[in-house]
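Filed under: proteins

Residues; backbone shape codes:
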Amino acid sequence: MPGITVKNIPEDLYEKLRQNAARNRRSINNEIIFCLEQILESKKLDPQLQLEQIRKLREEFDLPDLTDDFLDAAKNDGRP
């Protein structure tokens, strides 16, 4: 497997890495690999797809539209 050397890691960043590794019972090397995998393999979200899913959920639960009037009424409900 290829190896990488990372130089000049800020002390506070190294300490966070060390603490996360200890918390997760991993070596610092394995913690770095885990962090890189999380960043590099994360899926990019499609905003249109997310909005479509949100709209379907809103319809399924019959939720009201969040208009300014609705939000103002909800904030003022029960207030003198």
Remarks:
- The chain has a mean pLDDT of 91.
- The longest helix spans residues 47-60.
- The chain is about 60% helix and 0% strand.
- Helices lie at 11-23, 28-40, 47-60, 68-76.
